[in-house]
Design goal:
The complex is a heterodimer of chains A (about 210) and B (about 250).
Chain A lengths: L1 H8 L4 H9 L5 H21 L2 H18 L9 H22 L8 H7 L9 H13 L3 H12 L4 H8 L3 H19 L8 H4 L10
Helix pairs in contact in A: 2-3, 3-4, 3-5, 4-5, 5-9, 8-9, 8-10, 9-10
Chain B lengths: L7 H8 L5 H13 L1 H19 L7 H16 L8 H8 L2 H15 L2 H10 L4 H6 L22 E2 L4 E2 L4 H9 L6 E2 L3 H11 L6 E7 L2 E9 L5 E6 L10 E5 L1
Parallel strand pairs in B: 2-4
Antiparallel strand pairs in B: 1-3, 4-5, 5-6, 6-7
Helix pairs in contact in B: 2-3, 6-7
């Protein structure tokens, strides 16, 4: 009964959880969310930058997935499908934000609240804020590709499956995104001596 | 030898293998001769490293609860596209499976063969006997359930009952905890009231009997053995439409 089936759900593969949910099993979907919410959150907060918006997007995504479970096609991994739903929920949030009137400026409190804090390159929080600000300058497609590949560690093929574009498109979006980010993140390299690494991580450097 | 330095786009494309062979060869040639561009190339690799190392803000502690309650509210709403009434009910109300189990235990409390069958079939009774008190016959979140007053639930086990094996199949069903049990609709309530004469059924299973749609109703008999009726889809208290009866 109750306790028994919850224990058993731990062992159930993602696809079967989704199928059981579609058949009306009440705890199956909650288990799926419990299993993957940390990574879904990471995708949302890195794609949107703002934790509050990311929280809304993650909730949107969970509800969308809950409703769409019956339409899941078994040929993709459930995580791929879930991540796609999260990315789409983020895109929806951004679209909604862009039609919303901007916050009126001019009062000091508002100005202080949105003023960038002085970046401290040795501070992890500072790096995080800088990275977030730099990512925010990218077009959505490039940002989503870099979040998945460079930040989340997904392969190009996995990212291609999540975003439903060819792998070459992912590579190109990542390349363009990195090139754009470089000037913005340059100061975070200063902990190492650039002269020492010239030939080591250059990639295409012939000997 | 350095007519122009390589731009970041070109270097990033090279790293991803996106340049055609001729272009890649000329870029490699330039890199071999130009320390500054090698440096730029290393800077690009560092972008990925910085991105990978950036800490993720923690999942807000209240967000988990918020999402759980949004999902719970969603599961109580009518899910679109689901037509099966029992599926809808089961999804809306996860308490019903528990109530069905509790109903089985109430029957068990009276002793007799059905009670023992419930016990014997369920992992030596460990899970059934220990944890669930026999009280929660009604759903604490849906007071309207109380108006049914029946305390028993309908299952759709999918069992193809046969005349020759009816008793064994019923015993098997009784030993199982129904995953999705539904509150009976008015017609089923009326039918069961007529057949069981006011006694609480231990099993009401909408299934098939010898290939025909039928509802199997089992009641604990006076001698402890289950009374089993097989009724047709037209069953009501006035006309039970009994296809078979054993016990």
């Amino acid at each position: 009964m109750g306790a028994m089936s919850v224990t058993a759900l731990d062992e159930v593969p993602d696809k079967e959880l989704l199928a059981r949910h579609a058949e009306g099993e009440p705890h199956a979907f909650a288990e799926l969310v419990r299993r993957h919410r940390d990574r879904m959150w990471a995708v949302a907060v890195r794609t949107l930058g703002d934790p509050e918006e990311a929280a809304d997007a993650l909730q949107d995504a969970c509800l969308s997935a809950f409703r769409a479970a019956g339409r899941f096609r078994g040929d993709a991994a459930v995580t791929t499908w879930l991540h796609r739903i999260v990315v789409n929920a983020c895109l929806d949030r951004i679209r909604r934000r862009s039609v919303r009137p901007a916050t009126p400026m001019g009062d000091d409190a508002t100005f202080d609240a949105v003023a960038p804090k002085l970046p401290d390159p040795t501070d992890a929080h500072g790096v995080s804020l800088d990275v977030q600000e730099a990512l925010a300058t990218l077009p959505f497609e490039q940002r989503a590709a870099l979040v998945l590949v460079d930040m989340m560690g997904y392969s190009v093929d996995d990212a291609a499956a999540i975003l439903e574009v060819p792998p070459g498109t992912i590579k190109s979006r990542c390349a363009r995104g990195r090139a754009r980010l470089l000037p913005l993140l340059h100061h975070h390299r200063n902990r190492r001596d650039p002269r020492n690494v010239g030939g080591v991580e250059g990639g295409g450097v012939p000997t | 030898m350095n007519p122009a330095h390589l731009d970041y786009d070109t270097l990033a494309d090279l790293a991803e293998g996106l340049l055609d062979d001729d272009r890649a060869a000329s870029v490699d040639e330039h890199l071999a001769a130009c320390a500054e561009c090698r440096d730029r190339s290393a800077e690009l690799a560092d972008v990925s490293r910085i991105l990978a190392a950036a800490p993720v803000p923690a999942l807000p502690p209240d967000l988990t609860a918020r999402i759980d309650s949004a999902l719970a509210a969603e599961s109580r709403a009518e899910p679109p596209g689901v037509t099966d009434l029992n599926r809808r009910r089961a999804r809306r109300n996860p308490w019903r499976a528990l109530s069905a189990a509790a109903a089985a235990i109430v029957v068990l409390g009276g002793g007799g063969l059905v009670g023992r069958a419930v016990l014997d079939g369920a992992d030596d009774g460990k899970h059934l006997t220990a944890s669930v008190p026999p009280q929660p016959m009604t759903d604490p979140r849906h007071p309207r359930v109380q108006s049914f007053g029946a305390g028993w639930r309908v299952v759709h086990s999918g069992t193809a009952y046969r005349a020759a094996t009816l008793d064994r199949q019923v015993t098997g069903q009784l030993s199982r905890v129904a995953a999705a049990a539904a509150i009976p609709d008015a017609r089923t309530s009326d039918c069961v009231a007529g057949v069981a004469q006011g006694r609480a059924p231990a099993l009401v299973d909408v299934a098939t009997y010898d290939g025909r749609p039928a509802t199997i109703i089992a009641v604990r008999g006076a001698d402890g053995r289950p009374d089993v009726w097989v009724v047709g889809p037209g069953c009501s208290s006035r006309n039970p439409d009994v296809l078979a009866h054993s016990g």
